[in-house]
Amino acid sequence: MAGISISRSALLNTLTYEERESMQHICKNAHVYALAQPGLDALRNFMRDIFQTLQTNPSLIKNKHITSAIRSTLVALLSDNLIHTAEVPATKLSTSRCWKIVAESRELVLGQSEKPVTVAELCQHFDISRRTLQYCFHDLLGTSPAIYLRTERLNAVRHMLKKSDSVTEAAAYWGFWHFGHFSQEYKKMFGELPSTTFKRLHALN
Q1: Domains in the chain and their CATH numbers?
Q2: What are phi and psi of 94, to 5 degrees?
Q3: Nearest 5 degrees, angle CA 184-CA 185-CA 187?
Q4: Is-above-0.85 flag for pTM?
Q5: Which alpha helices (DSSP H) does the chain contain, by range?
Q6: CB 189 within 8 A of CB 154
Q7: pLDDT for 102-121, tens place per residue?
Q8: I need a labelling partner for 23 at 20 to 30 A (CA). Which of 55, 56, 76, 108 fits?
Q9: Which residues are CB-contacts of 73 (< 8 A; sequence separation ≥ 6)?
């Protein structure tokens, strides 16, 4: 069994103004809240992957970047699950505004090397709700913000493999904790396993 404890302030800091008001209402009184099954599965899978990864590579826990990424990802998962109950409405944005959000989202993902950018952080940065961000990405790219962020992080791993000491280091640095799933996703996107990319790039040095 694993227990997760998080302060209310840390949770609220990931949200937009409207979402904070809704979350304050949700957390007003102590109570037991049952998460929807997809959200619960996501939390369980994340924690399981973390434990399995650290069991195999215990030295990763000493990496401040990685522990920071674990915390931010976990907080984002919790806030995503809780805020979905608040029904914060979407705001219709212009096409030009949506393109600006997509372009700036990419810059944030690639420029923030200290930890992976989350959907919650994008919402806070642009001061829009999750539903607004969702509609924006879906209308322009036909995909969700989460999938877009994951694709950009996979690309970032590929670039990092050239200078990293191992595939594990590069994957964990960009927030991929289940290396079996990561390898499958990587191969699906690039046509080869990350280990193959790593060996090819380092053979050139």
Answers
A1: 8-203 (1.10.10.60)
A2: -70, 160
A3: 65
A4: no
A5: 8-12, 17-26, 37-56, 64-83, 95-111, 119-126, 130-141, 145-160, 167-173, 179-190, 194-203
A6: yes
A7: 999 988 888 765 567 878 78
A8: 108
A9: 46, 116, 118, 175
